[in-house]
């Protein structure tokens, strides 16, 4: 099962409404994405905590509908 980029972006934006999000389908199969997310919610959090926040926003889709997600996360400058 695959997830389209629009759904992935919507789930992230639902959790982080102020976020700037860019999604890249790395191999064109709807299962391998790279996401760059800039959100104020990440300020003061470690990279691991930021990624955990994104995984929580995906509500269990990671490892099921979504096979691989390379994350770049940070707070705005």
UniProtKB/TrEMBL annotation:
InterPro entries: BolA, BolA-like_sf, BolA/IbaG_stress_morph_reg
Source domain of life: Bacteria
Family: Belongs to the BolA/IbaG family.
UniProt protein name: Transcriptional regulator, BolA protein family
Organism: Rhodospira trueperi
């Amino acid at each position: 099962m695959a997830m389209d980029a629009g759904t992935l972006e919507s789930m992230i934006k639902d959790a982080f409404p102020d976020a700037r999000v860019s999604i890249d389908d790395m191999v064109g199969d709807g299962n391998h994405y790279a996401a760059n997310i800039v959100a104020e919610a990440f300020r003061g959090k470690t990279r691991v905590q930021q990624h955990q926040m994104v995984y929580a926003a995906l509500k269990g889709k990671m490892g099921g509908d979504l096979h691989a997600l390379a994350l770049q996360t940070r707070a705005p400058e």
